[in-house]
Amino acid sequence: MPQIKKVCVFCGSNRGALPVFAKAARELAQTLAQNKMTLVYGGANVGLMGELANTLLDLGGEVTGVIPKHLLEKEIAHKGLTELHVVDSLHERKALMAELADAFVLLPGGTGSLEEFFEILTWAQLGIHAKPAGILNVDHYFDKLIHFLQHTVAMEFVKPAHLNMIMVEKNSTALLKMFSTYVPTKEIKWIKNTADA
User: Fold this and answer.
1) Against a cut of 0.85, is the pTM above it?
2) DSSP category for residue 174
3) Which pairs count as long-range contacts for 84-91, CB under 8 Å and 24+ apart, including other chains?
4) Helices of type H across 39-185
5) pLDDT digit string (tens) for 89-132?
6) Most distant CA pair in the chain: distance in Å?
7) Which of 67, 75, 110, 169 is deepest in the core (most CB within 10 A)?
């Protein structure tokens, strides 16, 4: 597994109902700083996204944002990032974040965060990438989601090997340590990119 230098984080553009969510974002930023890892994220200066980026910047870390034009025009873009990519659409945003990052983390967030994370997982399942992805299960926020994913396996819509690709931890240091030893499951059938055919 290549060394992880850039971590993409999907998280809420709101702060959530509990202070523990913002605390977890700050702790993740501290872990990234300690490991000299660059943050790749959605480029906003609001909610957990802003908390995460601002903390890492305050610690002297590097932050790369990727934001669609229509959100830039609503003035929620972070103007103090190390690097900010402005793209035309949400589709381009996800593709560029996936390209830039070596690993992916899901913090508490809403449907947008979930959609981004599960697209990354689907790409891994299809063999489009072999990068690790994990969930920071802050204050049991994702317990019901994890239970549902276990249900999808029991109902034989998801293979156990594919569910096992998702690393789940309550602590950011432990999660990043898991990333460093990640090996893609051998049960994945790697598909050939049609552009290379």
Assistant:
1) yes
2) H
3) 84/43, 85/43
4) 47-58, 69-72, 90-100, 111-125, 143-154, 160-163, 172-180
5) 999 999 999 999 999 999 999 999 999 999 999 999 998 999 99
6) 50
7) 67
